[in-house]
Amino acid sequence: AVFLLCSCSITKEDGDKVQDLDFTVVSEDEIPPELLSMIEEKKTSPFKMTFQDQGFLYIGVGYGEQETAGYSIAVNELYETGNAVYIDTNLIGPGPEEKGKLTPTYPYVVIKTENVNKSVVFD
Q1: What's the pLDDT at 116?
Q2: pTM, rounded to two decimals
Q3: Which residues on adjacent β-strands are paired with residue 36?
């Protein structure tokens, strides 16, 4: 009789939060020029991107073209797990005073944090 042994390995993804990450919301004039150029190319459609520069990780999230001004973006969470960085953002609509003003805008946010050399997961 011959016995065939198969070995299967299951890798548990470490999705448990290790720590919240400190971050800064970066103003447009503080965004590295290469990243700003990429944002300008993509801003008409929703986008999610990362950029590394001088030991920092920049994370950009854009919500594409909106009909009016007055939008803002909340960064709900930015945290590190054993194998990734997770970010959760939310687009907040304009107030009633802005809704009648049909001026296209392209809301996006760029945050800067220490580069921990892990992939970024957008929630």
Answers
A1: 93
A2: 0.84
A3: none
